[in-house]
Specification:
CATH class of the largest domain: Alpha Beta
Low-confidence stretches: 1-16, 172-190, 296-330
Strand content: 5-15%
Helix content: 25-40%
Largest sheet: 8 strands, mixed
CATH topology of the largest domain: Rossmann fold
Number of helices: 11
Radius of gyration: 21 Å
Shape: elongated
Number of domains: 2
Order of helices and strands: EEEEEEHEEHEEEHHHHHHHHHE
CATH architecture of the largest domain: 3-Layer(aba) Sandwich
CATH superfamily of the largest domain: Class I glutamine amidotransferase (GATase) domain
Length: about 325
Protein backbone atom coordinates (compact mmCIF):
# COMPACT_ATOMS: atom_id res chain seq x y z
CA UNK A 1 0.00 0.00 0.00
CA UNK A 2 1.14 3.56 -0.62
CA UNK A 3 0.26 6.72 1.23
CA UNK A 4 0.33 9.56 -1.25
CA UNK A 5 0.97 12.98 0.27
CA UNK A 6 0.11 15.72 -2.17
CA UNK A 7 1.87 18.98 -1.43
CA UNK A 8 -0.41 21.93 -0.97
CA UNK A 9 0.00 25.57 -0.15
CA UNK A 10 -1.64 24.91 3.21
CA UNK A 11 0.63 24.58 6.21
CA UNK A 12 0.68 23.25 9.72
CA UNK A 13 -2.22 24.65 11.61
CA UNK A 14 -5.33 23.11 13.15
CA UNK A 15 -6.96 21.19 10.33
CA UNK A 16 -4.23 22.21 7.86
CA UNK A 17 -1.12 20.32 6.84
CA UNK A 18 1.95 20.87 4.70
CA UNK A 19 1.26 17.49 3.09
CA UNK A 20 -2.11 16.11 2.08
CA UNK A 21 -2.32 12.35 2.66
CA UNK A 22 -4.12 9.69 0.61
CA UNK A 23 -3.50 5.96 0.26
CA UNK A 24 -2.36 4.02 -2.80
CA UNK A 25 -2.59 0.23 -2.79
CA UNK A 26 -1.77 -2.69 -5.00
CA UNK A 27 -5.53 -3.00 -5.41
CA UNK A 28 -8.48 -0.91 -4.30
CA UNK A 29 -9.37 -3.39 -1.53
CA UNK A 30 -8.73 -2.54 2.11
CA UNK A 31 -6.10 -4.50 4.01
CA UNK A 32 -4.55 -4.84 7.45
CA UNK A 33 -0.91 -3.77 7.72
CA UNK A 34 1.72 -5.54 9.78
CA UNK A 35 1.15 -2.98 12.54
CA UNK A 36 -2.48 -4.06 12.79
CA UNK A 37 -3.82 -0.83 11.27
CA UNK A 38 -6.39 -1.22 8.52
CA UNK A 39 -5.98 0.91 5.38
CA UNK A 40 -8.45 1.62 2.59
CA UNK A 41 -6.57 2.84 -0.49
CA UNK A 42 -7.79 5.93 -2.30
CA UNK A 43 -6.00 4.82 -5.46
CA UNK A 44 -3.92 2.00 -6.91
CA UNK A 45 -0.41 1.74 -8.31
CA UNK A 46 -1.76 1.87 -11.84
CA UNK A 47 -3.85 4.96 -11.17
CA UNK A 48 -1.32 6.87 -9.03
CA UNK A 49 -0.64 10.40 -10.19
CA UNK A 50 2.75 12.06 -10.65
CA UNK A 51 4.73 12.03 -7.40
CA UNK A 52 7.08 14.45 -5.70
CA UNK A 53 8.65 12.10 -3.18
CA UNK A 54 8.46 8.33 -2.89
CA UNK A 55 8.86 7.01 0.66
CA UNK A 56 9.04 3.29 1.28
CA UNK A 57 8.75 2.14 4.92
CA UNK A 58 9.97 -1.26 5.98
CA UNK A 59 8.05 -4.40 6.84
CA UNK A 60 8.47 -8.13 6.39
CA UNK A 61 6.18 -7.98 3.37
CA UNK A 62 8.83 -6.13 1.41
CA UNK A 63 11.16 -9.10 1.74
CA UNK A 64 8.84 -11.16 -0.42
CA UNK A 65 10.30 -11.15 -3.90
CA UNK A 66 6.97 -10.57 -5.65
CA UNK A 67 6.19 -7.55 -3.48
CA UNK A 68 9.68 -6.02 -3.57
CA UNK A 69 10.09 -6.50 -7.31
CA UNK A 70 6.64 -5.04 -8.03
CA UNK A 71 7.41 -1.95 -5.97
CA UNK A 72 10.91 -1.64 -7.42
CA UNK A 73 9.54 -1.76 -10.96
CA UNK A 74 6.94 0.85 -10.04
CA UNK A 75 9.58 3.11 -8.48
CA UNK A 76 11.80 2.75 -11.54
CA UNK A 77 8.90 3.69 -13.81
CA UNK A 78 8.11 6.83 -11.78
CA UNK A 79 11.54 7.98 -10.66
CA UNK A 80 12.01 10.50 -13.45
CA UNK A 81 8.73 12.16 -12.46
CA UNK A 82 9.84 12.46 -8.83
CA UNK A 83 12.22 14.65 -6.87
CA UNK A 84 13.47 12.15 -4.30
CA UNK A 85 13.15 8.54 -3.14
CA UNK A 86 13.23 7.55 0.53
CA UNK A 87 13.58 4.09 2.09
CA UNK A 88 13.01 3.56 5.82
CA UNK A 89 14.73 0.55 7.37
CA UNK A 90 13.67 -2.56 5.45
CA UNK A 91 12.04 -0.33 2.87
CA UNK A 92 15.34 -0.57 1.02
CA UNK A 93 14.09 -3.92 -0.34
CA UNK A 94 11.54 -1.96 -2.34
CA UNK A 95 14.19 0.16 -4.07
CA UNK A 96 17.36 -1.92 -4.34
CA UNK A 97 16.05 -4.36 -7.02
CA UNK A 98 15.52 -1.39 -9.35
CA UNK A 99 19.27 -0.78 -9.58
CA UNK A 100 18.77 2.87 -8.63
CA UNK A 101 20.91 2.45 -5.52
CA UNK A 102 23.83 0.69 -7.22
CA UNK A 103 27.11 2.29 -6.20
CA UNK A 104 25.40 4.53 -3.66
CA UNK A 105 25.92 4.83 0.08
CA UNK A 106 22.92 3.51 2.00
CA UNK A 107 21.90 2.45 5.48
CA UNK A 108 19.20 0.12 6.77
CA UNK A 109 18.10 -1.65 9.93
CA UNK A 110 21.01 -3.57 11.43
CA UNK A 111 18.98 -6.79 11.28
CA UNK A 112 18.77 -6.59 7.48
CA UNK A 113 22.23 -5.19 6.77
CA UNK A 114 24.03 -8.44 6.01
CA UNK A 115 21.20 -9.73 3.86
CA UNK A 116 20.95 -6.48 1.92
CA UNK A 117 24.71 -6.47 1.33
CA UNK A 118 24.57 -10.08 0.16
CA UNK A 119 21.53 -9.70 -2.12
CA UNK A 120 22.57 -6.33 -3.54
CA UNK A 121 26.35 -6.37 -3.67
CA UNK A 122 26.58 -3.10 -5.61
CA UNK A 123 25.24 -1.14 -2.65
CA UNK A 124 27.61 0.48 -0.13
CA UNK A 125 25.77 -0.54 3.05
CA UNK A 126 26.68 0.98 6.41
CA UNK A 127 24.10 0.16 9.14
CA UNK A 128 26.05 2.23 11.67
CA UNK A 129 24.76 5.41 10.07
CA UNK A 130 21.45 6.83 11.22
CA UNK A 131 20.49 8.58 8.00
CA UNK A 132 22.14 8.73 4.60
CA UNK A 133 21.47 10.92 1.60
CA UNK A 134 23.19 10.04 -1.67
CA UNK A 135 21.94 12.19 -4.49
CA UNK A 136 18.15 12.04 -4.62
CA UNK A 137 18.05 8.84 -2.55
CA UNK A 138 17.54 8.83 1.22
CA UNK A 139 17.80 5.84 3.55
CA UNK A 140 17.35 5.48 7.31
CA UNK A 141 18.22 2.77 9.79
CA UNK A 142 14.81 2.11 11.29
CA UNK A 143 11.60 3.39 12.85
CA UNK A 144 13.20 5.84 15.29
CA UNK A 145 15.41 7.22 12.53
CA UNK A 146 12.28 7.69 10.44
CA UNK A 147 11.19 10.52 12.75
CA UNK A 148 14.53 12.27 12.28
CA UNK A 149 14.29 11.67 8.56
CA UNK A 150 10.79 13.14 8.45
CA UNK A 151 11.99 16.24 10.27
CA UNK A 152 14.94 16.53 7.90
CA UNK A 153 12.65 16.33 4.87
CA UNK A 154 10.38 18.99 6.38
CA UNK A 155 13.43 21.18 6.94
CA UNK A 156 14.46 20.61 3.36
CA UNK A 157 10.98 21.59 2.15
CA UNK A 158 9.97 24.35 4.57
CA UNK A 159 13.04 25.42 6.50
CA UNK A 160 14.59 24.82 9.92
CA UNK A 161 12.10 26.88 11.91
CA UNK A 162 9.11 24.90 10.66
CA UNK A 163 10.83 21.56 11.28
CA UNK A 164 11.60 22.77 14.82
CA UNK A 165 7.92 23.45 15.40
CA UNK A 166 7.09 19.93 14.21
CA UNK A 167 9.86 18.46 16.37
CA UNK A 168 8.17 19.88 19.45
CA UNK A 169 5.22 17.60 18.75
CA UNK A 170 7.47 14.56 19.15
CA UNK A 171 8.89 15.56 22.54
CA UNK A 172 8.10 13.03 25.29
CA UNK A 173 9.06 13.27 28.93
CA UNK A 174 11.44 10.55 30.23
CA UNK A 175 10.50 8.49 33.23
CA UNK A 176 12.44 8.77 36.47
CA UNK A 177 14.08 5.93 38.34
CA UNK A 178 10.86 4.45 39.75
CA UNK A 179 9.07 4.49 36.41
CA UNK A 180 6.91 7.54 37.10
CA UNK A 181 6.67 10.58 34.90
CA UNK A 182 8.42 13.68 36.28
CA UNK A 183 6.67 16.97 36.90
CA UNK A 184 5.25 18.59 33.76
CA UNK A 185 7.75 20.57 31.74
CA UNK A 186 7.31 24.34 31.60
CA UNK A 187 7.94 26.20 28.36
CA UNK A 188 10.58 28.90 28.60
CA UNK A 189 8.44 31.69 27.19
CA UNK A 190 4.94 32.45 26.05
CA UNK A 191 6.09 34.19 22.83
CA UNK A 192 7.61 30.91 21.63
CA UNK A 193 4.19 29.30 21.90
CA UNK A 194 2.62 32.17 19.97
CA UNK A 195 5.27 31.92 17.27
CA UNK A 196 4.69 28.18 16.92
CA UNK A 197 1.21 29.06 15.67
CA UNK A 198 2.33 32.15 13.77
CA UNK A 199 4.94 30.51 11.50
CA UNK A 200 2.49 28.15 9.77
CA UNK A 201 0.15 31.10 9.24
CA UNK A 202 2.98 33.08 7.64
CA UNK A 203 3.75 30.22 5.27
CA UNK A 204 0.12 29.98 4.22
CA UNK A 205 0.04 33.71 3.52
CA UNK A 206 3.39 34.43 1.87
CA UNK A 207 1.60 36.42 -0.83
CA UNK A 208 0.03 38.77 1.73
CA UNK A 209 1.32 41.78 3.68
CA UNK A 210 3.67 40.33 6.30
CA UNK A 211 5.01 43.51 7.83
CA UNK A 212 6.01 43.67 11.48
CA UNK A 213 2.76 45.45 12.30
CA UNK A 214 0.70 42.73 10.63
CA UNK A 215 2.57 39.92 12.33
CA UNK A 216 2.50 41.65 15.71
CA UNK A 217 -1.28 42.01 15.50
CA UNK A 218 -1.55 38.32 14.61
CA UNK A 219 0.56 37.42 17.65
CA UNK A 220 -1.38 39.85 19.89
CA UNK A 221 1.78 41.77 20.75
CA UNK A 222 3.00 45.33 20.31
CA UNK A 223 5.28 45.80 17.27
CA UNK A 224 8.33 46.70 19.37
CA UNK A 225 7.89 43.78 21.78
CA UNK A 226 7.12 41.44 18.88
CA UNK A 227 10.28 42.48 17.05
CA UNK A 228 12.49 41.82 20.08
CA UNK A 229 10.79 38.58 21.06
CA UNK A 230 10.83 37.22 17.50
CA UNK A 231 14.56 37.84 17.12
CA UNK A 232 15.29 36.26 20.50
CA UNK A 233 13.43 33.09 19.49
CA UNK A 234 14.48 32.73 15.85
CA UNK A 235 17.78 34.59 15.76
CA UNK A 236 16.78 36.94 12.94
CA UNK A 237 14.43 39.90 12.49
CA UNK A 238 10.89 39.16 11.21
CA UNK A 239 11.54 40.78 7.83
CA UNK A 240 14.63 38.68 7.18
CA UNK A 241 12.84 35.53 8.34
CA UNK A 242 9.86 36.17 6.05
CA UNK A 243 12.14 36.84 3.07
CA UNK A 244 13.91 33.54 3.69
CA UNK A 245 10.61 31.66 3.64
CA UNK A 246 9.57 33.45 0.47
CA UNK A 247 12.85 32.64 -1.30
CA UNK A 248 12.66 28.99 -0.20
CA UNK A 249 9.13 28.69 -1.54
CA UNK A 250 10.11 30.48 -4.75
CA UNK A 251 12.92 27.95 -5.31
CA UNK A 252 10.37 25.15 -5.28
CA UNK A 253 8.01 26.96 -7.63
CA UNK A 254 10.79 27.63 -10.12
CA UNK A 255 10.78 23.91 -10.94
CA UNK A 256 7.13 24.04 -12.04
CA UNK A 257 6.97 24.27 -15.86
CA UNK A 258 5.42 27.27 -17.62
CA UNK A 259 5.58 29.61 -14.63
CA UNK A 260 7.11 33.03 -15.16
CA UNK A 261 9.28 34.94 -12.70
CA UNK A 262 6.53 37.55 -12.47
CA UNK A 263 3.87 35.04 -11.36
CA UNK A 264 6.26 33.31 -8.97
CA UNK A 265 7.35 36.61 -7.43
CA UNK A 266 3.75 37.72 -6.89
CA UNK A 267 2.68 34.35 -5.51
CA UNK A 268 5.24 34.49 -2.69
CA UNK A 269 4.75 38.16 -1.82
CA UNK A 270 7.35 40.15 -3.78
CA UNK A 271 6.10 43.41 -5.24
CA UNK A 272 7.62 42.73 -8.66
CA UNK A 273 10.01 40.43 -10.50
CA UNK A 274 12.97 42.79 -10.17
CA UNK A 275 12.66 42.93 -6.38
CA UNK A 276 12.42 39.15 -6.36
CA UNK A 277 15.54 38.79 -8.52
CA UNK A 278 17.56 41.07 -6.27
CA UNK A 279 16.48 39.25 -3.10
CA UNK A 280 17.11 35.86 -4.68
CA UNK A 281 20.59 36.82 -5.88
CA UNK A 282 21.44 38.43 -2.54
CA UNK A 283 20.46 35.28 -0.68
CA UNK A 284 21.75 32.61 -3.02
CA UNK A 285 24.41 34.31 -5.10
CA UNK A 286 22.75 33.46 -8.41
CA UNK A 287 19.87 34.62 -10.56
CA UNK A 288 16.69 32.51 -10.24
CA UNK A 289 16.90 30.70 -13.57
CA UNK A 290 20.66 30.17 -13.31
CA UNK A 291 20.25 28.76 -9.83
CA UNK A 292 17.65 26.27 -11.02
CA UNK A 293 19.83 25.14 -13.92
CA UNK A 294 22.90 24.58 -11.76
CA UNK A 295 21.07 23.24 -8.70
CA UNK A 296 22.51 19.87 -7.64
CA UNK A 297 20.61 19.15 -4.44
CA UNK A 298 19.56 21.16 -1.43
CA UNK A 299 20.90 20.68 2.08
CA UNK A 300 19.26 18.40 4.60
CA UNK A 301 20.18 18.30 8.27
CA UNK A 302 20.50 14.79 9.61
CA UNK A 303 22.28 12.91 12.34
CA UNK A 304 24.49 9.87 11.93
CA UNK A 305 24.87 7.21 14.59
CA UNK A 306 27.59 9.29 16.25
CA UNK A 307 25.55 12.46 16.06
CA UNK A 308 27.29 13.97 13.03
CA UNK A 309 25.78 14.85 9.69
CA UNK A 310 25.31 11.79 7.51
CA UNK A 311 23.60 13.24 4.49
CA UNK A 312 26.00 14.23 1.70
CA UNK A 313 24.75 16.59 -1.00
CA UNK A 314 24.99 14.88 -4.36
CA UNK A 315 22.05 15.76 -6.57
CA UNK A 316 18.35 15.45 -7.22
CA UNK A 317 15.79 13.96 -9.55
CA UNK A 318 14.02 16.42 -11.78
CA UNK A 319 10.24 16.54 -11.96
CA UNK A 320 7.17 18.31 -10.73
CA UNK A 321 6.64 18.56 -7.00
CA UNK A 322 3.22 17.07 -6.55
CA UNK A 323 2.99 13.99 -4.33
CA UNK A 324 4.66 11.84 -1.72
CA UNK A 325 4.15 8.08 -1.78
CA UNK A 326 4.64 5.73 1.15
CA UNK A 327 4.26 1.93 0.91
CA UNK A 328 3.26 0.03 4.04
CA UNK A 329 1.54 -3.07 2.74
CA UNK A 330 3.06 -6.43 3.62
Amino acid sequence: MFLQLRLSMAVMEIGISCYQISTIGFTSEYFRAESGITFWPDSTLEAASELDTIVIPGGDGLRRSLVSETIAEWVLAHVNESRRVVAIGGGIYGVAPSGLLDGREVTTHWRYANDVARCFSNLRVDPRRHLVKDGAFYTSSGASAAIDLSLALIEEDYGRHVSSVVAQEFVSAPTNGNGKLPSPLVFDSQPADRFAELIPWIMRNLHEDLSVNTLARRACMSPSHFNRAFKSVFGSPPGEFVETLRINEAKRRLSVPKRTLETIAASVGFSDAQTFRRAFERRLGAKPRSYLKNFDGSSMAAASANGESALPQTGRISGARKALAIPTQH
